[in-house]
Amino acid sequence: MAAKRKSKGAYMISSVAEMYEIHPQTLRLYEREGLLKPSRTEGNTRLYTDEDLERLEFILNLARDLGVNIAGIAIILQMRERMEEMNRQMQSFVEYVRSEMLTRFNQAAPSSPGAIVPMRRPVVVSRAAAAPRKPAERG
Predict the structure, then answer these.
(1) pTM for this one?
(2) In order of start, what are the domains of the chain with their CATH numbers?
């Protein structure tokens, strides 16, 4: 289904309709329903970018290959956008935690090398506590 296209281009509605073998009214419908948002020239001509065409390919895959109706496509696209936003937020949070841990690790007191959280007083471990325990014998 993937149509051949130039990179970094902007395509008029007639070219897009021909490339994907759909009627221009279908593209207008997708725009009316909010599934596609092509840019416009000063003369109000629709221009579809490469990103618009990728989105259109996804929409056509849902409609043609999977039989999803327009309402279903809208829901799937919304869920996809939410998931991408949640992924961006999660990546940002992971990066924040990582940088905080590195900062705290680098600020750790010399008395507690390797500790992420600086210790106020040294921990003393007795030999009895440090020695491994033998399992109790059952008789």
Answers:
(1) 0.65
(2) 10-97 (1.10.1660.10)
